[in-house]
Design brief:
Elements: H1 2-23, E1 38-47, H2 55-62, E2 78-82, E3 90-97, E4 103-112, E5 117-122, E6 131-142, E7 148-155, E8 171-177
């Protein structure tokens, strides 16, 4: 009789473990897909090693060909628009102006959750093809619906070091959604 009771207890333990294993699957994950498309601005750019603030210099370099005329209207600042492509994790980059209808296509972007990278493919003066610039060590903040509000990461911008010598070391960027 003890053999039957111990077999019954063993069967109950197995059933309990099996139901616990299946009830903790990823299907119960309600985390929404990240939605990147929107207008952003770079609010912080600091060299990682020396801690030098290079926000103004980097903005001037990356947005040098911006269609936004800020003379007489400083409010017409350029924004970086991540336009939606075939998904919410890739598309075109446009430079848009805050106070005018001027826009300019300026490369492509892609987010790879598998690699943990956010890559901007940007045109570089003197280069016949866009240069991929990958942000790593990402910290992405999103609201409850998945809309990305903040992107932070480190980037190697050495391709631009000939124009801005501070870029010979990694740069920590903070990019915030404004629209």
């Amino acid at each position: 009789m003890n053999k039957y009771i111990s077999n019954a207890i063993y069967a109950l333990v197995l059933i309990s473990l099996t139901s616990l294993t299946f009830s903790c699957s990823d299907d119960d994950d309600n985390t929404p897909e990240l939605i990147f498309p929107g207008a952003y601005t770079i609010i912080s750019a600091e060299t990682v090693t020396s801690g030098e603030d290079i926000l103004l210099e980097l903005g001037g370099l990356l947005l040098a060909d911006s269609p936004c005329d800020t003379t007489g209207n400083p409010a017409n600042a350029p924004l970086i628009e991540l336009a939606a492509g075939s998904s919410n994790t890739s598309g075109n980059i446009n430079i848009i102006c805050t106070a005018s209808a001027a826009t300019q296509s300026n490369g492509t972007w892609v987010f790879s959750e598998a690699n943990g990278t956010f890559t901007l493919n940007l045109p570089v003066p003197g280069s016949p093809v866009p240069i991929p610039i990958a942000l790593t060590n990402l910290e992405i903040t999103a609201n409850s619906s998945g809309t990305v509000t903040l992107i932070e990461g480190e980037v190697n911008l050495s391709a631009f070091a000939s124009q801005l010598p501070e870029l010979d070391e990694p740069v920590a960027l903070t990019i915030i959604r404004v629209q």
